[in-house]
Design goal:
By secondary structure, the protein is α+β, with helices and mostly antiparallel strands. The chain is built from 4 helices and 13 strands. A 13-stranded antiparallel beta sheet has the order 1-2-3-4-5-6-7-8-9-10-11-12-13. A hairpin with a 4-residue loop joins strand 11 and strand 12 (about 210-220). The termini are far apart.
Amino acid sequence: MKRRWLILAAVAVFACTLVLRTPAANLVAWFLPANLPIQLFGVSGTLHHGQIATLTYRQHPVVEALHWTFKPLWLLAGRAAVQVEGDAADDLRIDGNLAASLSTLHASDLNIEGRIAALAATAGYAFVPVDGQLHVTLHRAAVTRTAIDALDADVTLKGLRWSLSAKPIELGDFTAHAIRTDKGGIEAKLSSPSGPLDVSGTATLSAEGRYALDLKLKSRPGAPATVRNLLQALGRPDATGAYRLHQTGTSPWPAARPAKP
């Protein structure tokens, strides 16, 4: 009996080693559907450790020189997990851990950093009226097409600038902490640690895809006239001199869940 288990263990180790050494280019050709908006170019290495020269989304280059290291032990938890690291144009960078289990995408200690304009262009927006350096840290996240199963994230925005003026208007630095709510949505608390604007408030996204932005904005003492004039476009201030910004709408994600019978 003992010899039988040793043979089975040896076969399992051999099979695992063989799979991990499978050329990554072959795996992409076999398993990646041809009609996906994501395309991979210059795939090299093996399943265990490899590289993608360019990853594009809807024919737009997103990440270059993306390296990955496969984590086979996570298969015991029912997840295919990799550690990724890559760069792209406009100082866009990504590194951290990604995993997939059935229809759920997991992330942990995942850092995404880049300019707002570059990230917006990747998402399909040709122009946004602001720019700055964005840093997102996903401490823990688990999402599907229809649900947010977990989220704990920090967002830092440095050197935000308003671009719709003859000269860009410096607005300062901003931070946000986002978590999953008990009702399956997202709630983020926003603040401005430095700069000419004093900003506080929340941004929420419901489990059904409805979002709401509720902010309180006020110029700090010594703020430039350009910043004060920009705030005046929001309407009348309240008794404390603060301006309110409230926006609502519907997001394409999470997708609507099928109605229960």
